[in-house]
Write a structure and sequence with these properties.
By secondary structure, this protein is mainly α. The protein folds into 2 domains: 1-21 and 238-437, no CATH class; 38-227, no CATH class. Helix content is 85%, strand content 0%. The protein has helices at 3-37, 40-61, 64-70, 76-108, 113-120, 122-128, 131-139, 143-166, 171-192, 203-237, 240-273, 279-306, 308-316, 324-334, 337-349, 353-374, 378-397, 399-405, 409-415, 417-435.
């Protein structure tokens, strides 16, 4: 990397770390408090709503964010076209979600989902007003401004949710937290990074951005659906409480990953995009991101898996004890997450979103098989199927890394072998220590 890009990378990494440390810590505290105040069923019901909301959010974005970030210069025409398209799509999609709310409630046999879905869906329209700022700030590797936006929104929305939960609002405290956070995010993004709103639509700009973004859209929708498919199956065939236990374990696992890895994830795509014309430098940058993310993710997942029971009991109480085996298994799958993201980013950097789409479909076949086979053995079999499919997909994800950069899975594992050995030794020692306590 050039010196200027190195400086940008270091500054970006520091600000994303501040963002994640502050954001994740505050969110973690709020989650603990809410988990003690609310019931597993409340979190289970919200998980049901979020399945459909996440799918709709992916459709509204339509891959335009990634398309803008990849641009060397984002023109006013690009901004205007993206805003108009996303805003109109958000209204259409919200209308569909509004009308579909009774069917969603009937599917899960949860009457309360009708109003919950319609209220939470408002976030689709709110978020459409912030897509330009988020894309531009990411493309400029300006994570300082994004940090100044997110931390206040997490504090305010989390504080309001806790107050509402204390006053008996139940599941609605979680809904209002999500809506309020999106609203504050949008307002602050406009305050810190205003742009002259234009309602002009440029056909040439749309065709160029959509040509790249369409593959990301399809891949993103498939990825989001299968990301939540285990929740969908659990919510349909098991109780809301069971989904609540699974969702809480998933939250702990994701918070650990997001806390440690998203700092790397957020800067890897824009940084590597600037190296797209130099394959040797791209490979070297790619290797550094793999080694850095593994250095933080692998020990964390081992630590969280071994200490799952005391962590759950100490932080959110014994009523969540059924989350422990879920958390341990999900940590086993979590160690592969950063490989998937960085390998996919490599394809986007090279402009091969079509291959990313192909990989997504192949991966989802293995997930589908994991569900079909796993559910035959109950809820634990279903989650084990999720873990097994994660490792199968690890093999799939690295195929094109080897083809384009000559960086195979074996080479990646060789690069991170010291971290693997350290993590395993730490886990064994810690496990044996717990047995003798």
């Amino acid at each position: 990397m050039s010196e200027s890009l190195k400086d940008q990378s270091i500054a970006a990494f520091l600000w994303v770390m501040i963002d994640k440390l502050g954001n994740s810590t505050i969110n973690f505290i709020v989650t603990i408090v809410l988990a003690r105040l609310l019931l597993p069923e409340d979190f289970g019901v919200i998980a049901m709503v979020m399945i459909f909301f996440e799918l709709c959010a992916g459709f509204v974005d339509s891959g335009f964010s990634n398309a803008l970030v990849r641009e060397k210069e984002i023109s006013e025409e690009d901004k205007s076209t993206t805003f108009v398209f996303n805003f109109l799509i958000s209204i259409v999609v919200y209308g569909i979600l509004f009308v579909s709310a009774p069917a969603i409630a009937a599917f899960f046999e949860e009457e309360s989902l009708v109003m919950l879905t319609r209220v939470l869906g408002i976030n689709l329209i709110i978020n459409s007003f912030a897509i330009i700022q988020q894309a531009v700030l990411t493309q400029q590797i300006d994570f300082k401004t994004q940090t100044k936006v997110r931390i206040p929104s997490v504090i305010i929305s989390g504080g309001v949710a806790v107050v509402l939960a204390l006053n008996g609002w139940g599941v609605w405290s979680l809904v209002i937290q999500l809506v309020l956070r999106a609203l504050i995010d949008t307002i602050l993004l406009w305050y810190f990074h205003p742009w002259k709103l234009s309602l002009k639509f440029y056909k040439s700009s749309f065709i160029r951005l959509f040509k790249f973004g369409s593959n990301i859209l399809i891949a993103g929708l498939v990825q989001r659906f299968f990301q939540h498919i285990f929740k969908l199956v659990i919510g349909k065939y098991f109780s809301a409480a069971t989904l609540g236990f699974y969702d809480q374990a998933n939250r702990f696992c994701n918070m650990a990953i997001n806390h440690l890895f998203q700092a790397v994830q957020k800067i890897s795509y824009p940084i590597l995009s600037k190296l797209q014309d130099d394959m040797e430098r791209l490979k070297e940058g790619y290797r550094k991101f793999i080694k850095l993310s593994s250095f933080v993710i692998l020990p964390a997942m081992v630590l969280l898996g071994v200490l799952a029971e005391p962590i759950i009991i100490t932080l959110i109480g014994e009523k969540w004890l059924q989350s422990v085996p879920f958390l341990q298994l999900l940590c086993g799958a979590g160690v592969t997450y950063h490989f998937h993201v960085i390998n996919l980013n490599m394809l986007l950097v090279l402009g091969r979103s079509d291959l990313g789409l192909r990989l997504e479909f192949i991966e989802k076949i293995s997930i589908g098989l994991g569900i079909i086979i796993g559910i035959q053995f109950g809820i634990m079999g279903l989650v084990i199927g999720q873990v097994v499919s994660a490792y199968i997909n690890l093999l799939v994800n690295t195929y094109y890394s080897n083809k384009f950069l000559k960086y195979s899975l074996l080479a990646q594992l060789r690069d991170i072998s010291p971290t693997i050995i350290f993590s395993l030794m730490m886990g064994v020692v810690l496990y044996l220590s717990l047995i003798h306590i």
